[in-house]
């Protein structure tokens, strides 16, 4: 850039940077605010004006949560669901996408149409609820995995990526006598890491974040309650419902905490795992999104 | 890989029209194994609910099941169109859908244009990384964040408004029906703003640099380059995305309204899905709930088809 900067350029640049910086702060501040509240003494928090730094530092709120058996188990279940759901989901998606990327596949066109239509047509909430009920998935663990096993959008992203690979990769493996399963799992998946990472992130985040299926289809089975659902209960103000009789908050503990700080601490616990993985995968999903969008 | 080439015929796997159906079936059994179960799952969970639409024309009784429940014709729909609550839910759905659409559309374009002017890679990446974060957290977390920020007792927003002297006493934001649409829109905007810029940034980085150079030679300033090169560059994508999302206005979701809403603001927060859910699960009238779901799906399909037709005519871009 050899061109000389004018006064107007500087004014523009300054405004632009300032606005973007503000945007960044507005996005980040609520998280920092919650973090500070979660690390602050419960009684003191009620006085307000906690911004991004705790006034009276304590880990009491986190202690209370982790001491609660309900919540600890819910956290374990959430992790199991996420790992299982993401693992199975990505493998299923890859298999379907691989088949649809094979030009010689006999049902390629009909399967494509069947899948695409579902992106535009859906029965609605109540018919779906009744279906789940009719096939006896209510209060059954499979309700977390089966209905969302195949995300059509993810299939399309993956299929496009597989189609963009050079034909020679698959052809030469076939000549060497490899089966389709071997070609997919030993070659295609390994050379498609960006798209695999993208879809894994999408699927894992969706599993980790979901609570509505818990609320609607599995809230009567306490062995299926997930962390997000417990958090939602705290949100609607029924802290007592979460900290029920089987936890022993004695008098001193009860005084040292309050719904607001518990809510903040739980929100942080639910958010942190995502913040941990996502910067590492960012370059992949940006590429994946862009790729999918351009292909469309 | 050092194995000698096996005797498998190196048949090009393209078209093999000469093979009979049965032989192709046998030859592609692995591909079938890898796809048929998953297609069946999609069919079950995506087309299965459409079956339930029959119930909208019945007076469904759980004990009698879908086959033996008495037929009711359009009675459920007649009831529906006579219920003011239904129209209230319809209004809420459409209003929040439109507000989300408009703010999201202009917000994403503005942020993308601003980010595009940043020369420092580090700064740009940092802002991008930060603004994507809310997209990845659940609505439960977002609702908790907003409840904390807007809390009348200790929330930062009220503290700030009081300090600036704008209000004299704390406002109970989430308890005011009049504010619900705006709070909901703000939450949605905040959550998706960064994420929605990805596609525009991709288009902007793909624009021909010669256009910018030519504009510069013509003496264009930054804002002029933005106006005459960047904005026209992203317009086709922007219009296509806008047209596409218009078809989805009635599908603006229910999670956010469910979580941010409460009984006090229900007049403004209840959307069609939640209205249907209420009737079905707490009152037990499934037929009525299905009628609501069906109405919503049909409107949505009609809108998507119409929008696809318009997109086809105006931009030569078809969605499907």
UniProtKB/TrEMBL annotation, chain A:
Localization annotation: Cell membrane
Gene Ontology BP, a term: transmembrane transport
Membrane topology category: Multi-pass membrane protein
Keywords of the record: Cell membrane, Membrane, Transmembrane, Transmembrane helix, Transport
TM regions (residue ranges): 12-32, 79-99, 111-130, 142-162, 183-205, 262-281
ABC transmembrane type-1 domain sequence ranges: 75-281
Pfam family, one: BPD_transp_1
Major subcellular location class: membrane
Superkingdom of this protein's organism: Bacteria
Gene3D superfamilies from the UniProt entry: MetI-like (1.10.3720.10)
Assigned GO CC terms: plasma membrane
Family designation: Belongs to the binding-protein-dependent transport system permease family.
PANTHER family from the UniProt entry: ABC TRANSPORTER PERMEASE PROTEIN MG189-RELATED-RELATED, POLYGALACTURONAN_RHAMNOGALACTURONAN TRANSPORT SYSTEM PERMEASE PROTEIN YTCP
Name of the protein in question: Carbohydrate ABC transporter permease
Organism: Paenibacillus rhizovicinus
UniProtKB/TrEMBL annotation, chain B:
Example of a GO biological process term: transmembrane transport
Membrane topology: Multi-pass membrane protein
Compartment(s) where it occurs, according to its Swiss-Prot or TrEMBL record: Cell membrane
Cleaved signal peptide residues: none
Family matches, as CDD domains: TM_PBP2 (cd06261)
InterPro entries named in the record: MetI-like (IPR000515), MetI-like_sf (IPR035906), UgpAE/MalFG_permease (IPR050809)
Highest taxon in the source lineage: Bacteria
Keywords associated with the record: Cell membrane, Membrane, Transmembrane, Transmembrane helix, Transport
CC annotations in GO: plasma membrane
Segments traversing the membrane: 31-54, 94-115, 228-250, 286-311
All residue ranges annotated as the ABC transmembrane type-1 domain in the record: 90-311
Pfam families tied to this protein: BPD_transp_1 (PF00528)
Main location: membrane
UniProt keyword Metal-binding, yes or no: no
Family matches, as Gene3D superfamilies: MetI-like
Family matches, as SUPFAM superfamilies: MetI-like
Protein family (similarity comment): Belongs to the binding-protein-dependent transport system permease family.
Protein name listed in UniProt: Sugar ABC transporter permease
Organism name: Paenibacillus rhizovicinus
């Amino acid at each position: 850039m050899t061109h000389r900067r004018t006064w107007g350029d500087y004014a523009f640049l300054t405004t632009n940077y300032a606005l973007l910086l503000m945007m960044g702060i507005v996005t980040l501040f609520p998280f920092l605010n919650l973090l500070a509240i979660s690390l602050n003494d419960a009684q003191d928090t009620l006085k307000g004006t906690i911004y991004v730094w705790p006034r009276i530092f304590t880990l009491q709120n986190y202690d209370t949560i982790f001491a609660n058996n309900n919540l600890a188990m819910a956290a374990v279940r959430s992790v199991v669901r996420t790992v299982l759901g993401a693992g199975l989901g990505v493998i299923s998606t890859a298999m379907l996408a691989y088949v649809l990327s094979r030009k010689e596949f006999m049902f390629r066109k009909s399967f494509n149409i069947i899948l695409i239509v579902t992106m535009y047509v859906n029965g609605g909430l109540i018919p779906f609820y009744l279906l789940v009920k009719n096939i006896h998935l209510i209060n059954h663990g499979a309700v977390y995995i089966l209905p969302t096993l195949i995300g059509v959008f993810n299939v399309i992203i993956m299929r496009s990526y597989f189609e963009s690979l050079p034909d020679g990769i698959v052809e030469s493996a076939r000549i060497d006598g490899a089966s389709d399963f071997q070609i997919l799992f030993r070659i295609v998946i390994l050379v498609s890491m960006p798209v695999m990472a993208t879809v894994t992130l999408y699927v894992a985040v969706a599993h980790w974040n979901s609570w509505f299926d818990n609320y609607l289809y599995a809230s009567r089975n306490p062995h299926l309650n997930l962390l997000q659902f417990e958090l939602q209960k705290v949100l609607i103000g029924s802290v007592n419902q979460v900290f029920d009789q089987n936890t022993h908050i004695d008098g001193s503990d009860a005084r040292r905490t309050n719904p607001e700080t518990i809510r903040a601490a739980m929100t942080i616990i639910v958010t942190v795992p995502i913040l941990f993985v996502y910067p590492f995968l960012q370059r992949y999903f940006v590429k994946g999104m862009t790729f999918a969008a351009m292909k469309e | 890989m050092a194995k000698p080439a096996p005797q498998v015929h190196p048949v090009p796997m393209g078209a093999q029209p000469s093979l009979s159906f049965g032989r192709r079936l046998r030859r592609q059994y692995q591909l079938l194994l890898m796809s048929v179960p998953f297609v069946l799952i999609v069919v079950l969970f995506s087309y299965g609910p459409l079956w339930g639409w029959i119930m909208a024309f019945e007076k469904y009784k759980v004990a009698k099941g879908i086959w033996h429940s008495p037929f009711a014709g359009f009675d459920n729909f007649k009831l529906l169109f006579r219920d003011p609550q239904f129209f209230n839910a319809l209004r809420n759905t459409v209003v929040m859908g439109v507000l989300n659409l408009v703010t999201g559309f202009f917000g994403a374009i503005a942020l993308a244009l601003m980010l595009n002017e940043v020369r420092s890679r580090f700064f740009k990446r940092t802002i991008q990384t930060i603004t994507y974060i809310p997209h990845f957290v659940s609505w439960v977390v977002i609702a908790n964040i907003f409840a904390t920020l807007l809390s009348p007792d200790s929330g930062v927003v009220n503290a700030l408004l009081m300090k600036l002297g704008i209000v004299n006493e704390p406002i109970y934001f989430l308890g005011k029906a009049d504010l619900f649409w705006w709070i909901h829109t703000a939450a949605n905007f905040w959550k998706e703003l960064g994420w929605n810029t990805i596609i525009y940034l991709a288009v902007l980085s793909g624009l021909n640099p010669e256009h910018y150079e030519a504009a510069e030679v013509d003496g264009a300033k930054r804002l002029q380059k933005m106006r005459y090169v960047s904005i026209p560059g992203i317009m086709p994508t922007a219009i296509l995305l806008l047209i596409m999302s218009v078809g989805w206005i009635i599908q603006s979701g229910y999670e956010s309204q469910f979580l941010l809403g409460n009984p006090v603001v229900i007049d403004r927060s209840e959307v069609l899905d939640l209205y249907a859910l209420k009737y079905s699960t707490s009152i037990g009238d499934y037929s009525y709930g299905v009628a609501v779901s069906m109405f919503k799906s049909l409107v949505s399909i009609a809108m998507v088809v119409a929008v696809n037709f318009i997109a086809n005519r105006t931009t030569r871009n078809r969605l499907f």
